[in-house]
Every structure is written in structure tokens, then in C-alpha cells.
Specification:
The chain contains 18 helices and 26 strands. The chain is α+β, with helices and mostly antiparallel strands and 708 residues long. It folds into four domains: 165 residues, no CATH class; 128 residues, Sandwich (Jelly Rolls); 304 residues, Alkaline Phosphatase, subunit A (3-Layer(aba) Sandwich); 82 residues, no CATH class.
């Protein structure tokens, strides 16, 4: 009679206790759905019942007894669970102090524990006073307790699975997000949600994530507690504290030594408050009840730099308007570029390198892809997008676990060019298009302040150096584009180095003065870069998309044209080994891409028009282009032929008849006009060059369009 009544009391009190546990966990974010709630009730009830049955087994083992005294006392102890009923029924208790509302569950639990323990002692005393019985009943209670514990295991697994389902977000493709000045591909990650990704083959590589508050968010957390769980390893969950800055991306890095071999996948979640120790030890993670979200970019896996690594870091600097003829590196009369000249003393210098087009977007896309504008799609009014089949340098280097970043100064007042979304961003972890502007020096005394003026290349160079310093332990590639020199806006900070008539300086003097200031800023950047130990493993490249031609318009350069001064650009390639030599053969800016990838131990998947500048390469006749109808210019040794094709750049449409515009001898003197017209005396060479241009045009157009 006592046996079934006691089991009934155990079942009822276990159910009440399980419901209490479910409600407490639900308020803490541990019960995401109905199935999870049922699992919590079942699991907590089973554990509770097992504890009661274990006590009875122990009681019968220590003091076997007969009679109903112990059963009655035990039933009363189980009846203490009725104290949870008001809490489960949402009965409002008028607590005298506000703090008691916060700890209300613990008040009920304490009251239950006190009553329960009291009647447990009563049952033990009743067993001592009862008539002796047999110990054979003890194994029966123990078996029932074991059964309850076994039944709790699947309930726990089901509960944990429900938590994982509620927290995990599908790993969809990230989308571009701009935070502050920089773009990054990122996902929105709610508080408590799990981001899971593959770790196979990433042992020893740094894991990098970037965090940012959504721009429209008003209640973003000041501190993130990011939990990282590496599965299939013996490591405990790691917690990294991140303090996200306002309006910028904040990096979080897990060193590669903490990613062991054999790791399969990784789970990451964040919370705005530090989780209790019992949560961390149990491995359980609550489902957040807040509506807060963060942007997370990544994961990125970066190769950790070692002395044995042959692939160098790469810093690529492109300066708009930097013509080779105005650089003292190439024997210009004025000392305009002493810092670049110092770098050239340990570099490979290419004296006759030419741009693929006298405009920034066309030439710089050729620089990044190794193909000409007719193939990558940037020329004149046609601004991409870059075809999917064509890769960029950072895309190839990202596959080699390089950290990559771009600072392009694209958003200048004179027009936007290297913007995010048309292909220039491909392969870059971080893409910053901001052109830095400041108020003019006299703005404080001006009641009607005018337009903002360029802040100088130092701002962009400083941002790039900060990024390099943050990634100094990793293989990195950074692309820096400087735009101020092409603007020809003389400011007091430029000084008056070459101004012969400061009140009314001529454009050439203004340019040389601005170039000297640009060189000074680059020199300061290089000096700070030299202070890093990683400098000895870094390849530095200085080049330009086009130069400025002062021979066309003495009052100042207008739109760049297909002339020697506009198309001849510097290439200074400083290798980690400090190799110093001068190459006088003709080459193109397109040759830089395969050269840099060769240094990094990789190559394009697409066919590149460029060739490796560090290997023996045959005679080359670089082709440049501009306009619609398309004008092509080919540079042969000491000659330049410019030909009007009469065709549209990206179609087979013919606008007008083709014709040779000029065929002239080039000069070695800086800024000199072509010396002689060669049409009359060398018609055979002119015909050969025109035929080469025709074939070049036919081949390029046929690659992206169908002939009529």
C-alpha cells in the first residue's frame, strides 16, 4: 500500500519540480521552443525522481525497516514541491524589497529545500525507530533510480539540440556593409546566435573576425564577450573580449597556435554580458532574449609569417599623375623624389614602363588583373563591372591566406572612380575608399568658409600603416592609391620648394613642388615601415596609373592624352633581398600583376597579357588606349605610333574610317616633344605596327563579344 502511494508522490512532485525548472530556465533564455520545454520538464523531473529514489535505496541499505513511518515522512518531504505552485501560477507576491523580485526563484527554492530537508530527517529518524526489515528492497529502489537517470539522458540531448537549432544561423553569403570609412563583406549576427564554419585544414593559421555595430543601431553593446568553441578537440570554450569602436570595424584575432590539428568546425557566438561560470563549464549556451545585433565580417584565415616563408608581404602604392619624366629617379633635373630614389637604390627599376590607358580606373584595373582595358571592361564611360572570369591580385593572395586591404581615395570631390561594387573590391578583406579632406588653413578666420581641401597623402598612408602594424605577424597585401598629386591644388603645407614665382607660379613648378611634398610623405611612411621587423620580408612597389603632360597645354595639364609624358610611368620594385638593378626594356603596367603573384608563389587562373618582369622577357611593344571611337597607341623602341581604329571599344561597331594619327620618334629628354615625324621615312614599320594593333583589337573584342 505504501509503495505505490510513495511512487505517486514522487511522480507528482517531480513533475512540479520539472515545471519550475523549465520556467526558471526560460526566463534566462535556455528554453527556445515547446519541444525544448518538454525536454527540460522531462529531464529535470527524471533527475529529481532519481535523487528521491537514491535516497530511499540508501535509507533501506543503511537501516532496513518495515512499517509506514518512513514512507509517510518521505511523502511529506515530496509534498514540499507544492510550494512552487504559486510561482507557476504567476501569483504576484508583494515582496517588501525590490531586490527580492530579482531572486524570487531562489526564495521559492530555498523554502522548498528547507521543508524538504526537514522531512528527510524525519524519515531517517522514523527508519531508525521502525522494526527491522530486509535489505533486499534497496536494490529495487536503486534500479528505479538508475532507470530515471538513463531516461534523463535523451531529454538532455533533445534540450541541447533545441538550443543549437534556435541559436544557429544559416551560413548565407555575406553582403557589403559600410561602417565608417571602410567596406567589408559581413553578416548580421543576433546576440546568442551561433555562427558555425569549417576549420579543416586551417590549423596554425590566425582566425580573424571583424565586428561592428550596425550603423542604424542605437543600443549596441559597449563590450562583446565572444565565445569560441572548437569542435573535435579537447579545448574548452574560449572567451575573447572585444570592445567595438563606434563607426569602424574592430578586429578580433584567435592565434593559429590555438587551432589544433584535426579540428573540424568552429562555433562562435557573442553576448553583451559575461556568462556565469556554470554556463561556461556546462557547455550550455542560452538563446538571447534581446533584439541586439552585430555585424561580423569573416572568418578570415591568415598565414602566420615565419622566417622560412618565402612569399613576401606586398605593399603596392599607385600615385595618380606621377609621370616618370618628372621623377629624379629617372634623371629629372630637379630633386623631386629623393625618398623614392633612396628606395630605388635597393630595388629593380623599370625605366620604360607604360600605362594601359591614361586614366586611373582603366590603368589600375590593369595593374590589379594583368589584362588590358578591353578585357577587364574599364575605359572611359564604360566602368565595368569586372567579368567574373578575371581574377585580381588580392583574390589570388586571399587564397594563399594573405590578409588584404585597399585604401583607394576613390571618393574625391573631382569624381568617384575606384568604388566598391564594380570589381575593385574583389579579394580585399577591408576596402576604404575615402579621400581625406580638411577645412582650409584660413577657415577659422573666414566667416564664410569655402570648400574642403585635401588633407594629404599622410592620412591615407597612416591608415594603411596602422592596418599593416595590426597584421605584421601575418602575410599581407595592401594596395594604396594616392590621388592628391593629380589635383594640382597648391596648399601652404606643400611649401615653395620649386616655386620660382610664388605669386603666379607656372604649372610645372606647382607640380614639382607638390611632388616633392608627396615624396616626403612617402619617405616618412617608408621610414616607419622600416622600423617594423617584418620590413625585411616585405616587397614594396611604387608606380602610377598615368602621368601629366605639360607640353600639350603650358597653362596646366588637362585630360591625360596618349602621349609619352602621360603614358610613361615609374615602376620601382623593392624586393626583400635588396636586389638593385635598372631595366631599360619596354614593359607595361600589366606586367606587375603576374610578377607579384610569382613572388607570392601563385598565379592567375585566367590568361594574363602581362609577363613576369623578374624573368627574362622578350621584346615588348606596350599598347595604350583611350576614347570612343577607340584610339590605340603602341610604343616601339624609340618610336610611338598612334592609330584611330574607328571602332567602339567594346563592340564590333565601326564609327569612322581608321587612320594613323601620328608616328613619331620619342625623346629621352624629360618633357620634350616628339622630335621627328617618321611616316615618310619608315612607312614599312608604321604598316607593321598598325597591323599589330588591328590584330590586337580583333583578338580583344572577340574574347567578350560575338562577331557580326
Amino acid at each position: 500500500m505504501f509503495f505505490p502511494f510513495y511512487l505517486l508522490c514522487v511522480g507528482v512532485s517531480a513533475g512540479i519540480f520539472g515545471a519550475f525548472v523549465r520556467r526558471v530556465l526560460a526566463l534566462q533564455g535556455f528554453v527556445p521552443d515547446f519541444e525544448g520545454g518538454l525536454a527540460v520538464v522531462a529531464g529535470a523531473a527524471a533527475v529529481y525522481a532519481a535523487a528521491q529514489l537514491c535516497y530511499m535505496a540508501l535509507l533501506q541499505l543503511l537501516k532496513p525497516s518495515r512499517g509506514g513511518g518512513p514512507y509517510l515522512a518521505e511523502s511529506l518531504s515530496l509534498g514540499a514541491a507544492l510550494i512552487f505552485v504559486p510561482y507557476l501560477a504567476n501569483v504576484a507576491v508583494p515582496w517588501p524589497w525590490s531586490i527580492l523580485y530579482r531572486i524570487e526563484p531562489f526564495i521559492y527554492l530555498t523554502a522548498f529545500g528547507g521543508i524538504h530537508a526537514f522531512f528527510k530527517m524525519v524519515s531517517f529518524f522514523a527508519a531508525l525507530q521502525s522494526a527491522p526489515g530486509r535489505r533486499l528492497i534497496a536494490p529495487v529502489w536503486a534500479a528505479l533510480a538508475a532507470f530515471c537517470l538513463v531516461a534523463a539522458c535523451p531529454a538532455y540531448d533533445q534540450w541541447n539540440e533545441s538550443l543549437d537549432r534556435a541559436r544557429e544561423i544559416p551560413l548565407t553569403e555575406p553582403v557589403p556593409h559600410r561602417v565608417g570609412s571602410a567596406y567589408a563583406l559581413a553578416r548580421t549576427l543576433p546576440e546568442g546566435a551561433i555562427l558555425r564554419f569549417d576549420l579543416r585544414g586551417q590549423a596554425g593559421r590566425n582566425l580573424v573576425l571583424r565586428w561592428a555595430k550596425p550603423p542604424e543601431s542605437e543600443d549596441g553593446p559597449e563590450t562583446l564577450y565572444v565565445t569560441i568553441q572548437i569542435n573535435n578537440s579537447n579545448q574548452k570554450p574560449m572567451v575573447i573580449t572585444v570592445n567595438p569602436a563606434d563607426e569602424e570595424w574592430t578586429e578580433m584575432r584567435l592565434p593559429g597556435v590555438q587551432i589544433p590539428e584535426g579540428s573540424t568546425d568552429c562555433e562562435i557566438l557573442w553576448s553583451g554580458k559575461k556568462e556565469p561560470e556554470w554556463v561556461r563549464l556546462s557547455g550550455l549556451r542560452p538563446v538571447a532574449v534581446s533584439s541586439r545585433e552585430m555585424l561580423v565580417s569573416g572568418p578570415f584565415f591568415h598565414a602566420v609569417r615565419t622566417h622560412e616563408m618565402k612569399a613576401p608581404n606586398i605593399v603596392l602604392i599607385a600615385i595618380d599623375g606621377l609621370g616618370a619624366e618628372r621623377c629624379s629617379v629617372f634623371d629629372y633635373a630637379r630633386n623631386t623624389t629623393p625618398a623614392m630614389k633612396e628606395l630605388a637604390e635597393r630595388a629593380v627599376v623599370f625605366s620604360y614602363a607604360f600605362a594601359s590607358a591614361p586614366e586611373a580606373s582603366a590603368a589600375l584595373m590593369s595593374l590589379l588583373t594583368g589584362v588590358n582595358p578591353l578585357l577587364h571592361g574599364f575605359l572611359g564611360a564604360h566602368q565595368g563591372p569586372l567579368p567574373d572570369a578575371i581574377q585580381t591580385i588580392p583574390q589570388c593572395l586571399m587564397a594563399k591566406q594573405y590578409a588584404t586591404a585597399a585604401f583607394t581615395e576613390a571618393e574625391a570631390p573631382g569624381g568617384h572612380d575606384l568604388t566598391y561594387g564594380n570589381g575593385f573590391e574583389r579579394g580585399f578583406d577591408l576596402f576604404d575608399p575615402v579621400f581625406p579632406l580638411v577645412a582650409p588653413p584660413d577657415a577659422a578666420n573666414d566667416p564664410l568658409p569655402g570648400a574642403l581641401v585635401p588633407a594629404g597623402a599622410r592620412v591615407t598612408l597612416n591608415k594603411a600603416l596602422e592596418w599593416i602594424t595590426a597584421h605584421r605577424e601575418e602575410a599581407f597585401f595592401v594596395f594604396i592609391r594616392l590621388r592628391e598629386l593629380a589635383g594640382q591644388q597648391l596648399l601652404p603645407r606643400h611649401g615653395s620648394t620649386f616655386l620660382r614665382t610664388p605669386r603666379s607660379p607656372n604649372p610645372g613648378d606647382v607640380y614639382d613642388t607638390m611632388l616633392r611634398d608627396m615624396d616626403r610623405q612617402i619617405g616618412h611612411f617608408l621610414d616607419r615601415l622600416k622600423a617594423l621587423p617584418e620590413y625585411e620580408q616585405t616587397c614594396i612597389v611604387i608606380t602610377a596609373p598615368y602621368g601629366l603632360d605639360f607640353t600639350i597645354n603650358p597653362r596646366g595639364p588637362g585630360l591625360p592624352a596618349l602621349t609619352e609624358s602621360a603614358l610613361r610611368v615609374p615602376i620601382i620594385l623593392a624586393l626583400p633581398q635588396g636586389v638593385a638593378r635598372t631595366q631599360v626594356g619596354l614593359c607595361s603596367i600589366e606586367d606587375l600583376a603576374p610578377t607579384l603573384l610569382h613572388l607570392a608563389g601563385t598565379a592567375f587562373m585566367h590568361e594574363s597579357a602581362g609577363s613576369n618582369l623578374l624573368e627574362t622577357y622578350g621584346p615588348k611593344e606596350p599598347v595604350s588606349m583611350a576614347g570612343d571611337p577607340l584610339v590605340l597607341s603602341i610604343r616601339a623602341p624609340w618610336r610611338r605610333l598612334t592609330w584611330q581604329s574607328g571602332r567602339s571599344p567594346f563592340s564590333w561597331e565601326t564609327r569612322e574610317r581608321d587612320a594613323i594619327i601620328e608616328f613619331v620618334e620619342t625623346s629621352t629628354r624629360p618633357g620634350a616633344r616628339p622630335t621627328r615625324d617618321l611616316m615618310a621615312r619608315d612607312a614599312e614599320t608604321a604598316a607593321r605596327l598598325v597591323e599589330r594593333l588591328r590584330e590586337y583589337l580583333r583578338r580583344c573584342i572577340s574574347l567578350h563579344t560575338t562577331a557580326p
